[in-house]
Specification:
Blueprint: H1 24-37, H2 40-53, H3 62-82, H4 87-111, H5 119-124, H6 129-145, H7 148-158, H8 169-193, H9 197-211, H10 232-244, H11 251-275, H12 279-282
Helix pairs in contact: 1-6, 1-11, 2-6, 3-4, 4-6, 4-7, 4-8, 4-9, 6-8, 8-10, 8-11, 10-11
């Protein structure tokens, strides 16, 4: 009796594992999109942080405004004498510079722990990581808003009127905020992985303060001030500070600020795409 050979078994369907070809870019974009759509959540968390920080205080965040005002007066009188600069020209420059610098340095400091301090939330709730970066950014924005009236007071006292040039501060502020958000994202991940990065960032921030025209004016460098364009802190501050003081930054400074923004955002996004899935294991 003839028996036909058994039919060959059909090949198993090929299953593409998500781990072998992860949708990293898509998931990173979804995280950013969902985080910005839930902007009310980081705002509420930022307000909670501020209330907890000043709990039991009579004046609350106004203590920061008063201490900042005293600092402006003391440093203005001191350094205008040391640098032999008219107080009318120096104090408005100092006020705008220090407010911008305080926002920048505080953001850098808190960015290093923005994800680590949110360890409990990250491990228990499936929230976008973008929410934690926005929480840090908005918390410092609210604190900075308490110091903004000091600029108006100083401008009124010294009769500073920047005119329509002040409108250029709007795109400059957008570049400043965009860089701040990208740095918070990048440093939050980097310091969650390598805890030694935080003290290094603090040291570099202190060095940048002395190397950047914050308490000293660029004119003091005379012919060498053209090299300040290589300082990213100067470029990002000048596109905001210059228009507020009635001075239009040069096209070279604007180009440098835009270039820095592009590099910082690209680096932060590339790092976020590559290591987003490991953040929960790092914190």
């Amino acid at each position: 009796m003839l028996f036909s050979a058994p039919a060959a078994a059909a090949p198993d369907p090929v299953v593409h594992s998500d781990s072998s070809a992860p949708r990293r870019i898509g998931r990173a974009l979804e995280d950013l999109s969902l985080g910005f759509r839930r902007w009310r959540l980081p705002v509420a968390l930022a307000q909670l942080d501020i209330r907890n920080r000043y709990r039991g205080s009579v004046l609350g965040p106004m203590w920061l405004t008063l201490s900042t005002a005293v600092t402006f007066i003391a440093l203005g009188l001191l350094y205008s004498t040391l640098f032999k600069i008219n107080l009318h020209d120096y104090l408005p420059f100092l006020v705008v510079s220090l407010i911008l610098w305080n926002v920048f340095s505080q953001l850098i400091t808190e960015a290093c722990t923005s994800l680590v301090v949110a360890e409990g939330i990250i491990r228990q709730l499936p929230l976008p990581f973008t929410v934690h970066a926005l929480r840090c950014l908005m918390r410092n924005a609210v604190i900075a808003a308490h110091n903004l009236p000091l600029i108006l007071v100083v401008f009124l006292i010294f009769g500073i009127n920047p005119g329509l040039t002040a409108l250029l501060a709007i795109p400059g502020l957008m570049l400043f905020v965009l860089n701040a958000f990208a740095l918070v994202m990048f440093l939050g991940m980097l310091c969650a992985r390598f805890r030694d990065i935080g003290p290094i960032v603090g040291t570099l921030t202190q060095l940048a303060f002395f190397m950047s025209p914050v308490i000293w004016k660029p004119e003091l460098l005379h012919d060498r001030q053209v090299w300040l364009v290589l300082n990213p802190v100067f470029d990002l501050m000048e596109v905001v500070r210059g228009p507020l003081l009635g001075q239009s930054p040069s096209l070279l400074i604007w180009a440098a600020a835009c270039g820095i923004t592009t590099v910082v955002c690209a680096l932060s996004f590339a790092f976020f795409v590559r290591f987003r899935g490991r953040i929960a294991f790092w914190v």
